[in-house]
Specification:
The chain is mainly α. The protein is 56% helix and 1% strand. It has a domain at 3-282. It contains 15 helices and 2 strands.
């Protein structure tokens, strides 16, 4: 049923066995152990880019965690609307949480496929997935892409005296399929140290991943539960489940954790360098746009336009609002010549006679402004002598007391 997994896994294992077996020997336990290790490396190389995307997605989700919580609070009673808004947020910011799970999802089928292929080298048992063959029949059947000769080579290979497909809980019939007389003690002497090392590697790999999480993830209850699982439950699973796993699977687990530990250090260091480069680039852009030392900053917001067609507060030109652009501010309210208000001396006596300059008269009209003749209003024309001596009667104040 899962042949689409079993055949690719067995093909990769067969390729690396041919590479190392040509140097170390076809029945060498080291050659088979290296084949399992490089099967892991091959898979992790294929999943390197998805792993980088997974790290970036996790960082992006932490950055947008406040927005996600706001959407969850806003659409708490409408799951369909919440899903729509979440998809919109992910699309706008270019991250996909499902893509971040690809490395974990891809390693699961490979683990299952390798476990099945290794068990299929020894089909003398009577349990689930076993055929109950005799040792002679088992050695004469191929195993997926492996020929019958490759099967015998695997059964003869031992790593420090323990067959790679053997486990501590192997039955007597299964142990009889291996040549050279193998006992459970021989398997335990190799399997138990591998179990302990694999559990320690799992713990430190998880610790390195948790240490790089941002502070909000540490205080998040769900993240705290997951951190405890990967820190303590998974290593404990390796110790408890190790006796039921073949030696080759323990090698697979150890190699996978060693690769993950090194890969995390490399990927996180690269992402940290990218973040520093982005910060430096942003700082350089701000420095380039800032004024140079000693230079006067250009402030165009408060600068008045130099055009005579200035505008007032309502946006209309000044000359349309009765303002003469050529007049100095503060003098616009002064009355023009001949336009004295009622009640003024000039209004009562009439305008002063003007001197005709064209007839060569030596006297001229006094100038307007602050240097006007004494007794005249500021900015008004001087009157002729003897004119305008009558003043308006002062207004009487009411003697009625309040």
């Amino acid at each position: 049923m899962l042949n689409f997994i079993y055949y690719p896994v067995s093909a990769i294992l067969w390729f690396w066995h041919k590479v190392f077996g040509s140097v170390l020997g076809a029945s060498s336990g080291i050659a088979w152990a290296l084949s399992v290790t490089f099967l892991v490396f091959t898979l992790r190389i294929l999943l390197f880019k998805p792993f980088v995307n997974q790290v970036r997605t996790q960082r992006q989700m932490q950055e947008f965690q406040p927005q996600i919580k706001a959407l969850q609070k806003k659409y708490a009673g409408d799951r369909q609307k919440l899903a729509t808004e979440m998809q919109k947020l992910q699309k706008e910011n270019g991250f996909n949480p499902i893509a971040g799970c690809l490395p974990v999802l891809a390693q699961g089928p490979v683990f299952i496929g390798l476990f099945h292929v290794l068990r299929s080298f020894n089909r003398t048992g009577t349990g689930v997935g076993q055929l109950g063959l005799s040792p002679a029949e088992n050695a004469s059947y191929p195993n997926y892409v492996f020929s019958a000769e490759d099967v015998r080579s695997f059964l003869d290979a031992k790593l420090f005296g323990a067959p790679l497909a053997a486990q501590i809980t192997s039955t007597v019939d299964q142990l009889a399929a291996y040549t050279g007389g193998v006992g459970r003690l021989d398997i335990a002497l190799v399997a138990i140290p591998l179990m302990v090392i694999a559990a320690i590697a799992t713990h430190f790999t998880a610790r390195a991943s948790v240490a790089r999480q941002p502070v909000p993830a540490e205080v998040n209850p769900q993240a705290a539960i997951m951190n405890k699982l990967v820190l303590w439950v998974f290593p404990f699973f390796v110790l408890v489940g190790g006796p039921f796993l073949p030696v080759a699977i323990l090698l697979y687990w150890l190699s996978n954790n060693a690769w993950t530990l090194v890969q995390q250090h490399y990927v996180f260091a690269g992402i940290a360098r990218e973040d520093e480069a982005k910060k430096l680039e942003a700082h350089e852009r701000r420095s380039a746009s800032a004024p140079k030392p000693g230079a006067r900053p250009q402030n165009t917001k408060g600068r008045k336009p130099k055009d005579v067609d200035r505008t007032t507060d309502d946006g209309a030109p000044e000359h349309l609002n009765g303002i003469n652009p050529g007049v100095e501010p503060g003098t616009a309210d002064r009355p023009a010549d001949g336009d004295e208000p009622p009640g003024s001396p000039e209004a009562e006596t009439g305008p002063a006679p003007r001197t005709d300059l064209s007839k060569g008269s030596a006297s001229a009209a006094p100038k307007k402004g602050r240097n006007s003749a004494p007794g005249t209003r500021h900015g008004a024309r001087a009157t002729a002598p003897g004119a305008g001596k009558s003043n308006p009667k002062p207004t009487r104040r009411s003697s009625k007391k309040r």
